């Protein structure tokens, strides 16, 4: 039971990275924008957050730096893809490649750096409950922030006027423009918000989840977060569920090794990516269901007055 509690706790810890990034990408795609640069944004945010944490000793400032770095990278994407109407797919891929190279260059001096002592967080009283305490109530506050963000985003999209406008821009930008809404501005703000959440994910990875800086440490999590939005049919609650499923698969490899299961470590490391491929294949078998849930204008540029 203790091992199971630790596995559940590790699942929430690993899933938080994917949840934050997935929710950010969901905001982008609900506005009709496909940003494939999640991997690059997370890498730049990871080094920004880690470097800030090393310099200041403050996790809060580290998260702030990560969010700003992610938003800055997203602003670059928005200026090109929304402002200049460059191809969204090509621009996102370029952003991902740029982020990987830039973070590696900036992070050379931080490979051996260490953060200050890590604090152990726990919810008073609840953390002492047998099994549930170690499993659920001894997490970093950002784990609970991710949960709240998913519920808040669900309320925003389906219960607020601003969320309705955002979804309208993703469904029919021409109609939203005809009603007087600034479609490009709304899309740009959505891209910034999504980049900031990807930045939080990157900072969480390097400051809390690891905590250290290694070149390429995101290791495909940005691509898994992109797959999550499709897996979740563009709904926040399902993004959260999917993030924890993939987080659990990721941590299962360490759990099995700890239990003495003799399986090649390389095979276990492949599990999250195999799970991603399997899920996408299963979803793609029902293309009509995907189209029914996908924002109608996803990936389509908008030219005011065109």
Automatic annotation (TrEMBL):
Membrane topology type: Multi-pass membrane protein
InterPro entries in the cross-refs: ABC_transp_permease
Keywords attached to this entry: Cell membrane, Membrane, Transmembrane, Transmembrane helix
Keyword Manganese belongs to the record: no
Transmembrane regions listed in the UniProt entry: 6-26, 33-54, 60-82, 89-111, 141-158, 188-207, 213-232, 239-257, 263-283
Compartments in which it is found: Cell membrane
GO cellular component, one term: plasma membrane
GO molecular function: transmembrane transporter activity
Listed name of the protein: ABC transporter permease
Organism: Rubrivivax rivuli
